[in-house]
């Protein structure tokens, strides 16, 4: 690797031809996205058109929990799916699942089958395409090589993938114009333990749906002309942040390839300090890639709504329309996969690491969470009079209680070696889990607690040019319409902020699957709803429906109980850290401490009581998370050592030799060699320091690899290896500043930031 390789790549970027993609069209006119949407999905509409009515009715009842899927129905669905897939050039099918590694997995099976008949006693083998109901419903992958946290051993290899009937099958492109049929599935062990993220998400969604419906039935009277709510869904919208850099430059960075983040590299003179990238003009190559990503996702029924530049250079965001949480998680993982694959076609690399570049903002995956009925009512919609919307207030305080009682568990759900670089870094929420409601809702809760009327004007503001009245803002410009105002302002520093009709869980890492954080969120709020349900029943006595006073008594109780978790200010300040400590809110800065909270008696009993996790499954999650954390940091240490020895230190030696030869030559001529000697005096201690740091880091890495206890290994990685990595980086970044550019082999930040 040489400096010339960097130069060739940077100059070559501007000579590349633009990738051309033919947008689907009919008679020369582009098809509407609505016409393309879901064309590669075997959803309920396609199934209703292809299945006999009795079969489709049976399947619909199964989706609503009315009956199990029998063999006849499964065979009929499998046949219809096969015909549909073969019409679209499918050659293989796969059960697509989410093992415990923040990724997805698949094993492709061909539709090909052989049939043997006998003619005059001689065998005649015929090839044909088949797909049975049993092949649709389950498959048997090797479970021994996936993370299990000790629940399975290598010789206990059997595991099963089982079709998740609520998530429709879909087609993705294979090689040479072929297609592959994907069957969204859960993944369990031979004994039924959850070896994936999805099965527990399904359990948590079922639990919260059941208890939320019970609460709703206690507070809403039956009306003859209004259909009764039969099911409640968790809804989710996952805003996905990511970086894009030129793939050729990425290929010259061992740290990005191995670890997903730069382990060395100094900031350029201009990065994000001018605040001009956020919502700025999207670079042409990036916009083309985004457009193709959205096209491919539209075919898969993934409803991407927005796209824009994010705060940091080369950072972008895509956000979908809200969906049922289980489907939204599948669609988020599909989005990441499609982004990755399409970026390759544009010679780009998509980076999902939470902090790929030190010194600029990192990436999150903001999970916008709410509850909705099968009638389309959002239970977290405050309406214009939230103080008398008791249904809203009950579900609001349930959310607050969940966060209050299990904030440490929510922190554990977003913990990772990569997310530790982002959380609490003045760009993302800190390790203190609190909730933001906004001044108006905060006043509503305070008024109910204190038994007084709501002060309607407390949240209003008045300036010379802008007057806020009710829910509109009058801008005092005749040509501008009045601006509709949300119930709450936005608090970008809060980890759990109410944003109008939902809560935004902002601490989730961009790289991780949303399954585990949403499973935790569902569970803690379900647990809170159980307490509220029981208190309502006690307050009601023999009454069939809770009265206004019954509801207010319970609402007031939980307003008081959860008051400490509400915070309306700047979560980044040191004052909040001190205030949170006074309130008894845990400040969990590092992941190893967070992982331990999964096994606390309070959190463990909550999960097992709800039936979301068993104790062995929780133990396995703790071990998997701790082990992954440890390995991530060990990998960073080894990569940094290799980069120092193979690239950084040799570059410094080459530059030092040039300076030495120049100084010596000037001295022979009797000329002044002071400038060269000045740089030599700066270089030498840096070279010595880097060499010593590399040796020290290697010694600590050897020791780290010998630690067998998972707790001790994670702690050592966190408190010994990680600080050494950062200390070594500081020396390398100082060296990069003074080393002649022609000797520096690794692409620099300014090159990666400016080649889109």
Write up this protein.
The protein has 756 residues and is α+β, with helices and mostly antiparallel strands. The chain has three domains: 36-196, Glutamine synthetase, N-terminal domain (Ubiquitin-like (UB roll)), CATH 3.10.20.70; 204-221 and 228-255 and 274-438 and 487-613, Glutamine synthetase/guanido kinase, catalytic domain (Creatine Kinase, Chain A, domain 2, 2-Layer Sandwich), CATH 3.30.590.10; 628-753, Up-down Bundle (Four Helix Bundle (Hemerythrin (Met), subunit A)). It has 22 helices and 23 strands. Helix 4 packs across helix 5, helix 13 packs across helix 15 (548-561) and helix 19 runs parallel beside helix 21.
Primary descriptors:
glutamine synthetase activity, Creatine Kinase, Chain A, domain 2, 756 residues, Ubiquitin-like (UB roll), GSIII_N, Four Helix Bundle (Hemerythrin (Met), subunit A), Glutamine synthetase, 23 strands, seven-stranded mixed beta sheet
List the helices and strands and how they pair.
Layout: H1 3-13, E1 25-26, E2 29-30, H2 33-36, E3 41-42, H3 44-50, H4 53-63, H5 71-87, E4 90-96, E5 108-110, E6 112-119, E7 122-129, H6 133-137, E8 138-139, E9 159-163, E10 169-173, E11 179-189, H7 198-219, E12 232-246, H8 247-251, H9 254-259, H10 284-299, E13 304-309, E14 315-320, E15 323-324, H11 325-345, E16 348-351, E17 365-373, H12 390-413, E18 435-436, H13 439-450, E19 467-469, E20 472-474, E21 483-484, E22 496-498, E23 503-505, H14 515-540, H15 548-561, H16 574-583, H17 591-597, H18 601-610, H19 615-668, H20 674-706, H21 710-738, H22 749-753
Parallel strand pairs: 4-11, 18-22
Antiparallel strand pairs: 1-2, 3-10, 4-5, 6-7, 8-9, 9-11, 10-11, 12-14, 12-15, 12-16, 12-17, 13-14, 17-23, 19-20, 20-21, 22-23
Pfam families: Gln-synt_C, Gln-synt_C-ter, GSIII_N
Domain GS catalytic: 205-648
GO molecular function: glutamine synthetase activity
């Amino acid at each position: 690797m040489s400096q010339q390789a960097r130069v060739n790549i940077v100059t070559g970027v501007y000579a590349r031809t633009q990738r051309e993609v033919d947008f689907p069209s009919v008679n020369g006119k582009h098809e509407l996205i609505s016409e393309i949407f879901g064309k590669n999905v075997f959803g309920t509409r396609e199934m209703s058109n292809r299945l006999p009515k009795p079969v489709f009715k049976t399947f619909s009842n199964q989706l609503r929990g009315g009956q199990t899927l029998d063999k006849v129905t499964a065979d009929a669905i499998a046949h219809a799916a096969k015909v549909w897939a073969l019409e679209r050039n499918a050659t293989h099918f796969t059960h697509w699942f989410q093992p415990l590694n923040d990724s997805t997995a698949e094993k492709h099976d061909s539709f090909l089958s052989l049939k043997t008949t006998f003619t005059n006693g001689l065998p005649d083998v015929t090839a044909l395409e088949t797909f049975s109901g049993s092949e649709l419903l389950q498959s048997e992958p090797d479970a021994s090589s996936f993370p299990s946290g000790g629940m399975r051993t290598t010789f206990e290899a059997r595991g099963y993938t089982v079709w998740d009937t609520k998530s429709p099958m879909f087609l993705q492109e294979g090689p040479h114009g072929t297609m592959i049929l994907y069957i969204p599935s859960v993944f369990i062990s031979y004994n039924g333990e959850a070896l994936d993220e999805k099965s527990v998400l399904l359990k948590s969604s079922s639990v919260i749906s059941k208890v939320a419906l019970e609460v709703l039935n206690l507070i809403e009277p039956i009306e003859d002309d209004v259909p009764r709510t039969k099911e409640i869904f968790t809804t989710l919208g996952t805003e996905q942040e990511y970086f894009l850099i030129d793939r050729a430059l990425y290929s010259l960075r061992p740290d990005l390839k191995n670890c997903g983040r730069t382990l060395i590299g100094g900031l350029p003179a201009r990065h994000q300090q001018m605040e001009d990238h956020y919502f700025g003009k999207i670079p042409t190559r990036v916009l083309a890639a985004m457009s193709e990503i959205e096209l491919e996702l539209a075919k898969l029924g993934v409803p991407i709504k927005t796209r824009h530049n994010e705060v940091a250079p080369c950072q972008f965001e895509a956000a979908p329309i809200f969906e049922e949480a289980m489907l939204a998680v599948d669609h988020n993982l599909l989005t990441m996969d499609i982004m990755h694959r399409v970026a390759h076609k544009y010679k780009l690399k998509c980076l999902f690491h939470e902090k790929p570049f030190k010194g600029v903002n990192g990436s999150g995956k903001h999970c916008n969470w709410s509850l909705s009925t099968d009638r389309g009512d959002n239970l977290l919609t405050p309406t214009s009079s939230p103080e008398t919307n008791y249904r809203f207030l009950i579900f609001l305080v349930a959310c607050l209680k969940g966060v209050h009682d299990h904030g440490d568990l929510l922190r554990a759900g977003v913990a990772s070696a990569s997310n530790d670089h982002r959380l609490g870094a003045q760009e993302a929420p800190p390790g203190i889990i609190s909730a933001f409601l906004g001044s108006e809702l905060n006043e509503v809760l305070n008024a109910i607690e204190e038994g007084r009327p709501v002060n309607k004007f407390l949240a209003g503001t008045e300036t010379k040019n802008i007057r806020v009245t009710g829910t509109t803002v009058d801008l005092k410009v005749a040509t501008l319409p009045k601006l509709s105002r949300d119930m709450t302002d936005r608090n970008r520093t809060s980890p759990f902020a109410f944003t109008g009709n939902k809560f935004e869980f902002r601490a989730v890492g961009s790289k991780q699957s949303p399954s585990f954080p949403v499973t935790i969120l569902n569970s803690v709020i379900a647990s809170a709803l159980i307490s509220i349900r029981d208190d309502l029943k006690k307050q009601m006595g023999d009454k069939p429906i809770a009265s206004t006073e019954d509801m207010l008594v319970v609402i007031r109780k939980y307003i008081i109980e959860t008051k400490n978790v509400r915070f309306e200010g700047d979560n980044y300040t040191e004052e909040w850290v001190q205030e949170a400590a006074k309130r008894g809110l845990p400040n969990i800065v590092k992941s190893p401490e967070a992982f331990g909270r999964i096994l606390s008696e309070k959190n463990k009993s909550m999960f097992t009581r709800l039936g979301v996790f068993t104790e062995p499954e929780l133990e396995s999650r703790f071990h998997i998370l701790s082990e992954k954390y440890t390995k991530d940091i060990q990998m960073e240490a080894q990569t940094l050592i290799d980069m120092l020895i193979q690239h950084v230190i040799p570059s410094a030696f080459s530059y030092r030799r040039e300076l030495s030869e120049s100084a010596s030559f000037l001295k022979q001529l009797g000329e002044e060699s002071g400038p060269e000697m000045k740089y030599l005096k700066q270089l030498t201690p840096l070279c010595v320091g880097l060499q010593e740091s590399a040796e020290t880091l290697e010694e600590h890495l050897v020791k780290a690899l010998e630690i067998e206890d998972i707790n001790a290994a994670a702690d050592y990685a966190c408190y010994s290896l990680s600080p050494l990595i950062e200390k070594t980086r500081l020396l390398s970044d100082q060296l990069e500043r003074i080393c002649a550019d022609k000797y520096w082999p690794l692409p620099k930040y300014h090159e990666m930031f400016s080649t889109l």
